[in-house]
Amino acid sequence: MVHYSRSEVKQPFGQLVGVSLLKPLKGIDPNLISNLETFFTLDYPKYEILLCVQDQDDPAVDVCKKLLGKYPNVDAQLFIGGKKVGINPKINNLMPGYEAAKYGLVWICDSGIRVKPDTLTDLTNQMTEKVGLVHGLPYVADRQGFAATLEQVYFGTSHPRSYISANVTGIKCVTGMSCLMRKDVLDQAGGLVAFAQYIAEDYFMAKAIADRGWKFSMATQVALQNSGSYSIGQFQSRMIRWTKLRINMLPGTVLEPVSECFLASLIIGWAAHYIFRWDMMVFFMCHCLAWFLFDYVQLTGVQGGPLCFSKLDFAVAWFIRESMAVQIFLSALWDPTISWRTGRYRLRCGGTAEEILDV
Predict the structure, then answer these.
(1) Which residues form a coiled coil (predicted)?
(2) Please, which residues have CB within 8 angstroms of residue 82's CB and are 6 or more apart in sequence?
(3) What's the burial of 252, exposed, middle or buried (CB within 10 Å: 0-12/13-18/19+)?
(4) Per residue in 213-266, pLDDT tens?
(5) Angstrom distance (rounded) from CA 202 to CA 308
(6) CA atoms within 13 A on the CB side of 174
(7) In the sheet where 138-140 sits, what is the strand order?
């Protein structure tokens, strides 16, 4: 493992608690340096940035060194090489940074996330006495192209509908894109090593924290994804991978398709026809239209401002996304293996996995 660091800068700190930011990096995209730079300009009195890169020849290393040089007064370190403790490549990559973390709160945040100067303040403000984990609602930054619109529509309609509903009703639903956690609670659960056997480490970390009696809280700011590499194919593959993980962790996921607009409208339309003798297709169309309108209202609410695409673009993206839902689910059922980062894995019931090695 190669380790680069700079001398820690001592400065007067406020009352906010210290935070260790763990940043897993692999490869680069057009937005990586601008996304990463937003963490160096956080308006927060006491935090450290722990940049973790698996391979010495990864181009992300040069990006990190450039930012380390540009911001010499930011407490930041670069760890290269990782530490093999299980099958999860993200955990392996983060291990050296986690072991070096000096503060009681750890913030694991993906490489494609962009933050505002007060994002960390918002997260720590939610970390009250009985809260063990603070997470952000995943959303997508304004970008160009139809693939970006498709992602933004999904993360502004279907995803937050289930994500927020789950958290409001007490169901622990967390994604690992941006999570602030108590390090001592994670250590009680065995540290990051304990979650290296899972691909969906975020779910099991959240479960371990909840099992120890801690509550969750959601930040007021979204976890803003701003990857510079995106396409319809990448979006579809990502959705299939997430669905496979949910099916293996939570068998009840097999009922998920009935929560999608077209299938739900069809079932409710049939019930309305059977019970009230209403026209099934008229009811189906009216129900879909109401769903569509409420989704648009929800999207504008999550956006918190004007959308960067037209209502026609929204309508097309919404229809395509809803049409893809059942196909994505069936694709996830068909093949229990997933490809993530540079590896392929076979999922087991319960959430564990084994790496598929090429012979």
Answers:
(1) none
(2) 1, 52, 54, 92, 93, 94, 95, 96
(3) exposed
(4) 999 999 999 999 999 999 999 999 999 999 999 988 887 888 889 999 999 999
(5) 31
(6) 29
(7) 113-114, 223-225, 138-140
Per residue in 121-138, pLDDT tens? 999 999 999 999 999 999
Catalytic (active-site) positions: 202
Sheet holding 353-355, edge to edge: 337-340, 343-347, 353-355
